[in-house]
Amino acid sequence: MCEEVKETVQRHTQSMRHSKEELNRLNQAIQKLTVDVDPDKSQPCELEGAKDAPALQEEGASDSAKGKLAWLEAALQKAKQDMVRQLREYQELMIVKLGLDFEIATYRKLLESEESR
Q1: CA-to-CA distance for 73 and 51, rounded, in angstroms?
Q2: Is the pTM of this model over 0.85?
Q3: Longest alpha-carbon distance in the chain
Q4: Over the Cα atoms of the chain, what is R_g?
Q5: How far apart are CA 33 and CA 55, in angstroms?
Q6: Which stretches are annotated as coiled coil (predicted)?
Q7: Domain count of the chain?
Q8: CA angle 81-83-87, nearest 5°?
Q9: What letter does residue 43 receive in the DSSP assignment?
Q10: Which of 32, 39, 21, 36 minimizes the C-alpha distance to 58?
Q11: Cα separations (Å) of 58 from 5, 44, 85?
């Protein structure tokens, strides 16, 4: 169970890393397009309309990547919370196990001392 959670966290971490890289690449492309097309607002108004369509596509892709990134971060957070919950449960079970081990050892000693009589 713990291995499955670890694999899920690793998968979500890698996916989030890829999404961040894609988002950074798209942001760089947007900045490059902005600099190439509009270095100091000296472009004619006709180019403003022409650059809107690719900018809207880039913005849509950027929004999509941001949405995916937000979803992945939420999934990662949920996986972390699950791991914390499982760790707590494991610790509680270990406390119970240690108590039972102590009780078994006590009864074993009593039994051995009774047998030796």
Answers
A1: 32
A2: no
A3: 107
A4: 30
A5: 8
A6: 69-96
A7: 1
A8: 120
A9: S
A10: 32
A11: 35, 22, 40
Residue showing tokens 């760790």: 87
Task: For 76-103, give one letter per residue: b (16+ CB within 10 A) or e.
Answer: beebeeeeeeeeeeeeeeeeeeeeeeee
Helix, strand, coil: what percent of the chain each, to 5? Answer: 90, 0, 10
Which tokens go with 51?
Answer: 């650059």
Q: Which two tokens stand for residue 105?
A: 């050892």
> What would the two tokens of residue 20 be?
């961040």
Asked if residues 59 and 27 have their Cβ atoms less than 8 Å apart, the reply is no
Amino acid symbol at 30: I
The one-digit pLDDT tens for each residue of the chain (117 residues) are 667 777 777 777 777 777 777 777 777 777 777 666 555 555 444 445 555 656 566 667 778 888 888 888 888 999 899 999 999 999 999 999 999 999 999 999 999 998 888
